[in-house]
Structures are given as C-alpha cells and as structure tokens.
C-alpha cells in the first residue's frame, strides 16, 4: 500500500510536472522544423512499470513513424494517457529529460546528457544565406536556436547530436556552393598555331577583322563575337557595304546618279564599279572572304581600352556580362573573363575552377597545326578565235576535262565524264554558258594547255599577263591584287574629300584541304574581280568596266582549275586630219582620216594548288 500511496503520491507530482512542461513546450513548439505526421485524435495508452524506450517504440509504431532511440534514454513509465500525440511526446520529454528531433523521416531520441554544440565559421557564404537555406529546407528548430554573428560570419549550434550534424552539413554545403560561385581562377593558355588576338587585313581599302581564338571563345561562352578593336569581321560584308554607301552618297550626287552600261559582255560600266559597295551586280551575289561559321558579329560593342585588365569588360560590351548570366549552372554574371595577350600569343581566362578543364580541352582541339599550301595562279589573255588553236575542243568531255562553251542559246551536253567535277551541270535541259563563261578541272591537262599558250604567244595571239604564286595556310584566304588606284576629289557641303577608286584584277582564293581524302582533295573557293578603265567618262570621272566571278570546285593536289572570264570587247574610233583644213564645213571631210578598231580578248585564270607540308 505504501508503494501504492507512494506511487499515487508520485502521480500527482508527475502530473504537475507534465502540466508545466506542456505549457512551456506549447510556447516553444517548432515552427520551421519538419512536422511529425501524427495521426488525428488522442493517443490512448495504459502502462505499468514499462521501460521508457519500449513506451517510445510503442508510441512511434502506433503513429506509423520510424524511430531511433539512444541507449542513454532510460526510465520507467506508469500511467494512463489519453492525449494528442504531440502532447504525449512533450510530456515524456519533460518528465524524463530526453530530447528529440524529427528530420523529416526518422524520429530520433537522445538522452539529456548527449546535448552538444558546434561552432562554424563561414568562408564564402553570408549568415543570411544560411538562414534562408535552413528555413527553405525545414531544418532549423526553434527549440534549439542557432546564434549568428554577422560580423564574424560565425554560427553557434546547440542541440541533440543529430540536429547539430544536420545543420552543420547544410551550412557546409551552402558555404561550399558560395565558394564555387564566387571563387575564380585565372589561367594562361599559350597557343602554338592559332592566333589569340584578332587580325586586321585590308580588302578594297577597308580594314576587315579576322576573328582570333579569343573572339571565338567569347562568342561561344558569352554570346559576344565583337572583336576587341571594334572593326567589322570579314563575315559582316553587308554592314560594311551599307557604311560604304553612306560614305559615297556625296559622290553619287556629284555625278547626278548618271550611269552607263555596255551590254553584250555581261559586265557593267558605270561611274563607280558595282562591286565598290561590296554588293556586286544583280546577278553577281557577293561571297564573303571567309565562310561564316559562327554567331553573327556584334558590331555595337565598344572596343576594349588599351591596358584593360584581363576580362571581357568593355572589350565585349556591357551586354556581354548580362548575357553571360543566362548560361546557367549558377554562373556569375561577370564570368568568364577572356582576353588575348598578343605579345606571347596566349589566351588568358578567368573563370570558375571547374570550368578550366573544358577550356583546356577545347583550346587544344582548336589549336591544331594547319597544312601549308601554295597557290599557283596564271592569268592568260587569248585573242578571239584563238581558243580552238589551244588544241582543246571546248565541247569535249574526257577523263581530265569537263567544260562547255557557248552563247547561252544551245543546249548543254548531258554526258558526265567519270571523275568529273561535281559542280558542273549534267542536265540536257540546261543551256551552255554565255560569253565564254566556263569552269573546268583540267588535271594533268593543265601542262598541255600552258604549252599551247606559249606557242600562241609567239604569234601574239595569246599573252600571259601575270603568274603570281602565294603560300597560305589551310582555310586561310590568299589574296592576289594587281590594281590601279586613283583618287577622285568630291566637294561636300562644307569641305572636300578624296575617295579612292581602283581598277584591275583581284584574285581571292580560299583553299580547304578535305580531311581523310585519299587523293588529297582540295576545295577552292574562288572570287575574281576584274575591272578596267574605259575611255568613257561621267563628269570627268572615268568609267570602270568590272566583272565578278564566284565559283567553287574540288581539285586534287597538283591539278589545275581553269576559269574563263567574260569576253572583253574594246571598240576604238580615231579621227585624224590636217590642222585647220579638217575643220572646214563639208570640205573638211576630205582632209580627215577615220579609223575603227575592234579587239576581243578572252581572259583565262588557271589555278593550281599544291600541298607543301602535310
């Protein structure tokens, strides 16, 4: 009985303690931690002298919650309970001094003597970032408050071991992510064959930018393909043409927009050549000096200032940094910084460390050794009617020759020779090219053709105008110019200016070695501009008769590509007479001598590529 009284007297004391504990814990209930999925209704339980760990297991089992109980939890429970589940757990915790924490999956219980603490120092993240992450993940529990020191970037965590470990893991993860986000690394990639900086070349008196490795990388990683110098790329010919049009507007006004043409030879004859604006004639589409393979050039970005720090900065424009933020993966809004060092031909990159391996692999693939080629060009002028004397039937198709000649009225031949150039037509529905326009792959017959041309030179029926040779790299354009340049003074509204005009032959060849080809095939992209000064003038400005040829062909190493240009007709009328008497009306004709000369010349271009180094 004493035991009962003792037990009964102990029960009221326990009930008082439980009531106080319930009041305290009701005010300190967790708000941000994961809530335990208790069953609705009261938990009814009757127990007599049962181990506390067994009671907790029965309780968790009835609620369908997995539990883990530390060996340090001890005690004996007796009583009759009919309370909500949360209230029952809090009552036992306050009565027996254990602590619990639910991590969203398992209800973990520790003894009161196992409460621990940990101090963490942040290296990259801020305390606000840690608070936000803990709240979003429902990890923080107000029963175990975390103390923050914003100035020292330090956290003090106290609570059960599982809680301290969970919070510490989240804090370390946030701090590590911030370190990857903000931490940068700078690395220098020296180049052996490619150019790091952009290269400027002169084309038609204009500065054209050939993009280098840095511009290529910026276009891929920051979507900004503008060069550091602000000059247009070779792929932006349309923009350059529009700029030239505006610049020459006063020149067009000075000649009153008067143009003259010479029909019959397919060429145009005006005060300014059609190709001056970079657009060509209506039937002569412009061909960029280099094939465009990348993003369009952004010509609005400001040029990079001299001595600027390594990085995109002003060199790629203000929009480049904003666009780089869209590349995802948590990238910083101002990364990557990519800059060229022309002094040592190296690429300097500042970016996150985990991206450097990708840069290194890409640069190694792009920095490959190009093959060296030699382009032999021969410009030949043949008198009209002497083409047959070259010993070649222009309507003939054989193993080495596949070409046609005509007046654009007859039907083209439908026969295709084995191994013929795939760019030539083989349909019987087509027409032969007009004006002697033809393209042929001669192969070994090129030597025979040059022998016949040398023979015609002896009778002044043919002439080798020029034989330029130039060495170039694979996929690098070779330019051979032979032009006359003069300047025209044009009066403006407040000042006068000089504009340069040129006439002559411009030959641009872009060779590309076909990889893994048995016969070392070479693709030739050819652009020929042929302009001549005529005796006609417009406002005392000489008229330039110009023509363009754009073609592509596949030839083997050492074979020749023959291109026949437009036929050039020159009509010359001369009047001579006795001074004074030749001016007498009617009778003056008796003292005059009139002569009329007409000459017709076919201009041929023979191109022979050679692979010098493999």
TrEMBL record:
Gene3D superfamilies: 3.30.1370.120, 3.55.50.30
Gene Ontology biological-process entries: protein secretion by the type III secretion system
Keywords carried by this UniProt record: Cell outer membrane, Membrane, Protein transport, Signal, Translocation, Transport
The keyword Lipid metabolism belongs to this UniProt entry's keyword annotation: no
Compositional bias of kind Low complexity: 293-304
InterPro entries with a match to the protein in the record: Bact_Secretion_Sys_Channel, NolW-like, NolW-like_sf, T2SS/T3SS_dom, T2SS_GspD_CS, T3SS_OM_pore_YscC
Region annotated Disordered, chain positions: 255-274, 281-304
Domain Type II/III secretion system secretin-like: 455-612
Statement: the UniProt record of this protein carries the keyword Signal: yes
NolW-like domain: residues covered: 118-175, 186-371
Location of the protein in the cell: Cell outer membrane
A single Gene Ontology CC term: type II protein secretion system complex
Leader sequence segment: 1-33
Subunit architecture: The core secretion machinery of the T3SS is composed of approximately 20 different proteins, including cytoplasmic components, a base, an export apparatus and a needle. This subunit is part of the base, which anchors the injectisome in the bacterial cell envelope. Forms a stable homooligomeric complex.
UniProt family annotation: Belongs to the bacterial secretin family. T3SS SctC subfamily.
Function: Component of the type III secretion system (T3SS), also called injectisome, which is used to inject bacterial effector proteins into eukaryotic host cells. Forms a ring-shaped multimeric structure with an apparent central pore in the outer membrane.
Protein name: Type 3 secretion system secretin
Organism of this sequence: Xanthomonas campestris pv. translucens
Name of the coding gene: sctC
């Amino acid at each position: 009985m004493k035991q009962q009284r003792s037990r009964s007297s102990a029960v009221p004391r326990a009930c008082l303690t439980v009531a106080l504990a319930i009041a305290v814990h009701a005010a300190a209930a967790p708000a941000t931690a994961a809530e335990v999925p208790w069953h609705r209704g009261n938990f009814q339980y009757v127990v007599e002298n049962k181990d506390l760990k067994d009671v907790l297991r029965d309780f968790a089992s009835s609620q369908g919650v997995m539990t883990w109980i530390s060996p340090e939890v001890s005690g004996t429970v007796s009583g009759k309970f009919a309370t909500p589940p949360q209230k029952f757990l809090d009552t036992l915790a306050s009565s027996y001094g254990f602590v619990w924490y639910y991590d969203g999956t398992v209800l973990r219980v520790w003894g009161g003597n196992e409460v621990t603490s940990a101090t963490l120092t942040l290296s990259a993240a801020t305390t606000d970032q840690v608070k936000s992450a803990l709240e979003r993940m429902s990890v923080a529990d107000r029963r175990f408050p975390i103390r923050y020191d914003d100035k020292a970037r330090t956290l003090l965590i106290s609570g059960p071991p599982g809680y301290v470990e969970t919070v510490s893991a989240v804090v370390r993860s946030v701090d590590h992510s911030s370190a990857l986000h903000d931490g940068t690394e700078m690395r220098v990639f020296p180049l052996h064959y490619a150019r790091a900086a952009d290269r400027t070349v002169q084309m038609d008196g204009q500065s054209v930018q050939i993009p280098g490795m840095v511009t290529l990388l910026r276009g891929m990683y920051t979507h900004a393909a503008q060069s550091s110098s602000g000059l247009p790329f070779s792929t932006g010919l349309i923009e350059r043409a529009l700029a030239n049009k505006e610049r020459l507007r006063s020149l067009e006004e000075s000649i009153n927009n008067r143009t003259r043409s010479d029909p019959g030879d397919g060429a145009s004859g005006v005060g300014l050549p059609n190709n001056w604006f970079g657009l060509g004639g209506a039937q002569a589409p412009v061909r960029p000096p280099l094939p465009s393979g990348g993003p369009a050039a952004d010509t609005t970005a400001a040029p990079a200032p001299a001595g600027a720090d390594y990085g995109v900065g002003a060199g790629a424009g203000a929009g480049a940094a904003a666009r780089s933020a869209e590349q995802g993966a948590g990238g910083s809004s101002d990364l990557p910084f990519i800059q060229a060092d022309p002094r040592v031909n190296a690429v300097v990159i500042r970016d996150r460390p985990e991206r450097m391996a990708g840069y290194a692999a890409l640069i190694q693939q792009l920095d490959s050794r190009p093959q060296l080629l030699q382009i032999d060009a021969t410009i030949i002028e043949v008198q009209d009617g002497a083409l047959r004397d070259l010993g070649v039937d222009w309507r003939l198709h054989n193993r080495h020759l596949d070409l046609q000649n005509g007046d654009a009225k007859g039907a083209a031949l439908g026969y295709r020779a084995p191994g013929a150039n795939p760019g030539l037509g083989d349909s019987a529905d087509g027409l032969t090219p007009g004006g002697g326009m033809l393209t042929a792959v001669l192969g070994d017959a090129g030597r025979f053709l040059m022998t016949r041309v040398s023979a015609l030179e002896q009778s002044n029926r043919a002439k080798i105008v020029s034989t330029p040779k130039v060495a170039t790299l694979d996929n690098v354009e070779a330019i051979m110019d032979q032009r006359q340049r003069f300047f025209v003074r044009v009066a403006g509204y407040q000042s006068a200016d000089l504009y340069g005009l040129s006439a002559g032959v411009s030959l641009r060849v872009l060779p590309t070695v076909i990889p893994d080809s048995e016969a070392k095939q070479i693709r030739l992209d050819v652009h020929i501009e042929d302009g001549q000064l005529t005796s006609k003038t417009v406002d005392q400005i000489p008229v330039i008769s110009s023509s363009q040829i754009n073609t592509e062909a596949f030839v083997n190493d050492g074979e020749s590509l023959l291109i026949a240009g437009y036929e050039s007709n020159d009509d010359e009328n001369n009047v001579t007479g006795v001074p004074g008497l030749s001016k007498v009306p009617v009778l003056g004709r008796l003292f005059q001598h009139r002569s009329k000369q007409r000459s017709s010349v076919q201009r041929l271009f023979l191109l022979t590529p050679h692979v010098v180094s493999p």
